[in-house]
């Protein structure tokens, strides 16, 4: 698994836990729905930290909480 897949899975999982749609998430975090959809559908391969922070703010979690999962802990090192 790569980092983008982990980010996508985390966003979808958090939305699922809260019972919210991608459009509702966009509204909560003050981003256009297209920004989130670009991450989820692979159009954006390198989302900005600020975008992830805004998503976290909309979900009421910290960046640390966003990335503190076994899925992120298990990622292989990108630079070999």
From TrEMBL:
<dbReference type="InterPro" id="IPR001387">
    <property type="entry name" value="Cro/C1-type_HTH"/>
</dbReference>
<dbReference type="Pfam" id="PF13443">
    <property type="entry name" value="HTH_26"/>
</dbReference>
<protein>
    <submittedName>
        <fullName>Helix-turn-helix transcriptional regulator</fullName>
    </submittedName>
</protein>
<feature type="domain" description="HTH cro/C1-type">
    <location>
        <begin position="17"/>
        <end position="66"/>
    </location>
</feature>
<dbReference type="InterPro" id="IPR010982">
    <property type="entry name" value="Lambda_DNA-bd_dom_sf"/>
</dbReference>
<dbReference type="GO" id="GO:0003677">
    <property type="term" value="F:DNA binding"/>
</dbReference>
């Amino acid at each position: 698994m790569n980092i983008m897949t982990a980010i996508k899975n985390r966003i979808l999982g958090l939305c699922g836990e809260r019972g919210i749609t991608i459009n509702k998430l966009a509204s909560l975090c003050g981003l256009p729905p297209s920004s989130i959809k670009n991450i989820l559908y692979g159009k954006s391969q390198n989302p900005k930290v600020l975008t992830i922070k805004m998503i976290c703010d909309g979900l009421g979690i910290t960046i640390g909480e966003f990335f503190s999962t076994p899925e992120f802990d298990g990622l292989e090192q990108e630079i070999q």
